[in-house]
Amino acid sequence: MGICTLIVNPSSGGEKATGYLDLMRTRLSEMFEEVTVKKTEKQGDAEKFAQEAANHGHDAVFCMGGDGTVNETINGLAVAGKSVSFGFIPLGTVNDLARAIGIPLDPEQAISMLSEAALVVLDIGKVNDRYFVSNVAAGAIPEAVEGVSAEEKTKYGPLAYFIEGGKALAKQTMHRFRITVDGETFTQESPLILIALTNSIASFESFMPQAKVDDGKMRMVVFKEFNLLDSLKLLPQLIRGEIKNSDAVIYKSFKHATIAVEDGENLITNVDGDEGPAFPLEIEILPSFIKVYGPAAT
Ligand SMILES: Nc1ncnc2c1ncn2[C@@H]1O[C@H](COP(=O)(O)OP(=O)(O)OP(=O)(O)O)[C@@H](O)[C@H]1O
């Protein structure tokens, strides 16, 4: 039956984690001979615990938390480089990877799904020296979104990101980027560049309907200069999942890219919802990198 580690972020999702811990431990002890539970106290703990579990020969590592905890756990497993299965119970506000794989957003349902789960193959991405599972965002909007506080997230949920993002958009702050996508180079002024591994970005599941979790590709959307009319046209395209056909963006499907800021600003990036590495960025896909406990195909 094997052994596993369960990493729990007690602060995730308005401190819901502890309430589900016993239920999860019981479920895992039906699936594994031995379950080691580790609680995070600060940033970096989930990554460290995942790496240690992989290096100690654990067969699977699970985590309970938001996208930040999922990202850290994946980073720990990727750095260890061992073949370890991964599972998670979504407890955050956004939960993009859960949405992409079809893991129930209700923690109790996600826990009960585990007994009939299948191992689903998942691509992951690498941006400079960090790994990611959902998305990378760069530009004036992610810069603004970084300022969303934990209180705002609890109060408004994913809407908090849209409010801050909308304010940055209204200010029309642009940066000039030099982008190379699979060997093709271009420059573009943009308020926002999004790189998506899966369909769901910032809880918006119809953003990139064509993106599958194991298709070996990423998608880049470079937004052009916006005026009100453009954004009115863009909104229905976004809702219908047709952003790739919009005149308001440059859309690329790719495996490797580099992005530099030409106007010399020290822009920050956002990776899976948390602050990511500084520019210039090198982004690549690691196809079929890990197996994740997800819903069995019907
Ligand atoms: N015991 C703890 N107390 C406070 N913060 C913690 C603790 N353990 C980890 N953290 C922090 O929590 C962050 C991750 O939170 P996570 O993204 O999992 O949940 P969330 O913020 O509720 O979800 P979301 O990102 O979807 O809003 C980590 O970056 C880490 O810094």
From TrEMBL:
Keywords in alphabetical order: ATP-binding, Kinase, Lipid biosynthesis, Lipid metabolism, Magnesium, Metal-binding, Nucleotide-binding, Phospholipid biosynthesis, Phospholipid metabolism, Transferase
GO cellular component: plasma membrane
Organism: Trichococcus shcherbakoviae subsp. psychrophilus
Family: Belongs to the diacylglycerol/lipid kinase family.
Gene Ontology biological process terms, A to Z: phospholipid biosynthetic process
Pfam families linked to this entry: DAGK_cat (PF00781), YegS_C (PF19279)
Protein name: Diacylglycerol kinase family lipid kinase
Cited InterPro entries: ATP-NAD_kinase_N, Diacylglycerol/lipid_kinase, Diacylglycerol_kinase_cat_dom, Lipid_Phosphate_FormReg, NAD/diacylglycerol_kinase_sf, YegS/DAGK_C
PROSITE patterns found in the cross-reference section: DAGK
Coiled coil regions in record: none
